[in-house]
Each structure stands twice: as structure tokens, then as C-alpha cells.
Amino acid sequence: MGKSEAQLQNNQNPKLNDVQSLGEKRSLLSIIVAKFLQNKLAVFGLIMLAIIVGSALLAPWIAPHDPDFQNLRNRLAAPSAEFLLGTDHLGRDIFSRLLFGGRVSLFVGFVAMVGAVTIGTTVGALAGYFGGLVDAFLMRLVDIIISFPNIFLLITLVAVLEPSLDKLIMVFAFLSWTGTARLVRGEFLTLKKREFVLAARTIGMSNMKIIFGQILPSAMGPVIVAATLAVGGFILAESALSFLGLGVQPPTSTWGNMLTYSQSVTIFRTAWWYPTFPGVMILLTVLSFNFVGDGLRDALDPRVIEK
Predict the structure, then answer these.
(1) Burial of 60 (0-12, 13-18, 19+ CB in 10 A)
(2) Exposed site from 70, 179, 193, 292, fewest CB < 10 Å?
(3) What is the spatial distance between Cα 182 and Cα 121, in angstroms, rounded to a whole number?
(4) pLDDT 10s digits, 22-31
(5) Bridge-partner residues for 87, per DSSP?
(6) Cis-peptide into 251, omega within 30 deg
(7) Strands (E), 166-234
(8) CA angle in degrees (0–180, nearest 5) for 18-20-21
């Protein structure tokens, strides 16, 4: 039994075995990292994300002002030494609100991504492994959800449930798992025919252990890429809904609802800093996640690893 399990573990990652058989000193992980670092845009995105996430986490210590403190005497004050990025229509410091708003926007993006990837991975794994009626039922469910216009369904559900942070995350997660499910299903349809899966069945391993302990780790490459890209998408969706007044509600600041009160043409002309800086943060964050996702997609490409 011990020998069979050892052979099974050795057969789980054939790409790594091929690299080792060629006598290369670098591990599979080091090859992936090296390939990722060759992508300059991906490295730029990773550095930007480190700065953005780090700043958000350290917001209580970095922010020079209370993000919710109002002082109408400083209403729409231009950027200065006291207010680095100016103030909003209530005299609140925009730089401080960007830092604290980033915590909420990033939290929404990451938690919604975890929920969507968890649901999508589970559904795709079960459909791909069992096939037959299970696959047909789950994939028709995916088709039904995809058939609805996403943005209109989002707006409708958020409006019906009343806007709040937890409901926003829940709606994002339950409407955005279908792409991951299809990716994972495709990987499972291929991997379940591999030798290490047959060996696992031979030694009497249960279906759940085979699915989540043997096949899933080998199918995580596309899932990681999809998850990275999804975070940026969720941040953009939260910003759009908050801009429309259907997302996170004031006084909690997010990058999206910071733009809500800057819709006035007068404010846009006389206080350019008010809409500009939240918009720039949304742009940089979404672009950075997309750059990192593209870099991971290239680095985890089996055709690239095998070269």
C-alpha cells in the first residue's frame, strides 16, 4: 500500500518529473517564477498591487486625517501640503478616504473572488469527474445563469436586497462562478483519464479524495489565472454599482462611491482632483490585476513550461 501511494504521488505532476529526468537543477516553481519575471508588465502590476494593498492595510497609520471628518470651510480645497490630494464637497481629506476606501474595495474584490472560485471549482470538478446526468444538470444550470444579462441582474438583485457590503459580495459570488466552473470541468475531463487517477482508483481511494486531493491540484493553473483577473473585475463592478448608489453606502468610503458626488459638471470643472484620484486608483488597480493575470497565464502555460 505504501509503495503504491508513493508511486501515485510521483505520478501526480508529470511535468516536474520530465524536468527532473532531464537533469535540470531548477524546480518547476522556479521556472514559473522566472517566466513570470520576464513579463515586465506583470512585474509592474505586482509591484503596484503590493503598494496599493500595503497602503490600504496600513491606512490607520498612513492617513493624515480622519477620513470621515467634515469641515465645510475646507470644502473642495485644492491639493496642498495640508491636503495632499485636496478635499471633497464636505471638506473631507481625499487622500485619507482613498486609503480607507481602498480597504473596502479590495475586501469586496478578494472575498467575492474566493466565493465565486469556490463555487465554480466545486461545480466544475463534480461535473467533469462524474459526467453523465450530473454533468448535464450542472452545465445546464451554468447556461441558465449565463443567459441573463449580468449587469442588469446585478442591479436588480442589489436593489431588491437593499445595498450593503455583505449582500454585494454575496451577489457577486453567486453570479460570477460560471466561468471558473467551465474551466475546471474542462481540466477534469482531461485529467480524470490520466494514469495517476487510475492508480488512485486501483488502491481504493474514495471519489472525493480523488477529486479534491489528486485531480484538483493539477487543475489549479487556469483557476489561479481566472481568480486573479476576477478580483479586478469585482472591484470595477463594485465601483460601478457604488457610483450608481447601489453599492456600499456612505459614510463608508469606497473608490466607487467617492465618484458619486463628483458627477456635477461644476465640480468636474472647478475641482478636477475630486473625480480624478479615485478614478486613477480604480484604473491602476484593475490594470495591475489584469497584468498579473496575463503574466500568470503565460507562466503557467504547459507549452511554455515544457520548453
Answers:
(1) exposed
(2) 193
(3) 9
(4) 444 357 677 7
(5) 93
(6) yes
(7) none
(8) 65
